[in-house]
Amino acid sequence: QQQVKQSPQSLIVQKGGISIINCAYENTAFDYFPWYQQFPGKGPALLIAIRPDVSEKKEGRFTISFNKSAKQFSLHIMDSQPGDSATYFCAASPPYNFNKFYFGSGTKLNVKP
Amino acid sequence: GAGVSQSPRYKVAKRGQDVALRCDPISGHVSLFWYQQALGQGPEFLTYFQNEAQLDKSGLPSDRFFAERPEGSVSTLKIQRTQQEDSAVYLCASSPQRGERGDTQYFGPGTRLTVL
Questions:
Q1: Where are the domains of chain B?
Q2: How do the residues of chain B divide into helix, strand and coil, expressed in percent and rounded to 5?
Q3: What DSSP designation does A44 have?
Q4: Which CATH number belongs to the domain containing residue A20 in this structure?
Q5: Residue B98 above 70 pLDDT?
Q6: Percentage helix, strand, coil, to 5, in chain A?
Q7: Residue in B42, B48, B109 nearest the CB of A104
Q8: What is B5-115's CATH number, 2.30.30.280, 3.40.50.150, 3.10.450.70, 2.60.40.10?
Q9: pLDDT exceeds cutoff 70 at A59
Q10: Number of domains in chain A
Q11: What are phi and psi of A97, to 5 degrees?
Q12: What does pLDDT average to over chain B?
């Protein structure tokens, strides 16, 4: 059973637009939610992360929105650029096994110039 | 400085062969993780080391999979009697702290294993 469900599978956005990727989880014990960015042929790299004690975290053009009651969180990329074209993964981990990340299935983002 | 490196980058094995995948973590990093990433999927946790101690191997899919980190630095993931379903990218990640909460995991580029 997939612990973290991610959508959409792929996304095409025009340059300057907003990219939105959504994730949902079942395990209410999860308390750490990172987002990773992966370029072809490379390993994932941490982009931004959030804990459930806040509803939003912003770093530059990247924002995580967190809805604890709905067990959902999302990544918003403002002013999307062609260089943002990559695959994005959400993940979650519980406090009792916080080294064990459960990843979503990924969203392939293509930002058109 | 150098990041996490993995070798080989690509490995083709015939079904039934044994393979060994190497991970060189960032120097001084205490924690080391192995993940399996199937095509079009997110990484799935395999195992975790803190120094030379394997603290969690709950994600290893079968007893054909074995990982070691004998001196607390380089790690090897060994797959015995490879099967077609083992075809995937195997990612290694390391982190500097002793598995502290919110510790960033730095990933290597992965080894793409294809079993024919």
A1: 5-115
A2: 5, 45, 50
A3: -
A4: 2.60.40.10
A5: no
A6: 5, 55, 40
A7: B42
A8: 2.60.40.10
A9: yes
A10: 1
A11: -155, 60
A12: 93
B53 close contact with A: CB closer than 8 A: no
Query: Mind listing the pLDDT tens digit for each residue in B69-78?
Result: 999 999 999 9
Contact B110/A at CB under 8 A: yes
Amino acid identity for residue A41 in this structure: G
Provide the pLDDT for residue B32: 94
- The per-residue pLDDT for range B7-48, each reduced to its tens digit, is 999 999 999 999 999 999 999 999 999 999 999 899 999 999
What is the predicted pLDDT for the residue at B10? 97
Query: In whole numbers, what is the pLDDT of chain A averaged over residues?
Result: 93
Q: Which of B29, B100, B105 to mutate to test the interface with A (most CBs of A within 10 A)?
A: B105
Q: Which residues in chain A have Cβ-Cβ distances shorter than 8 Å to B31? A: 99
DSSP one-letter code for B69 = -
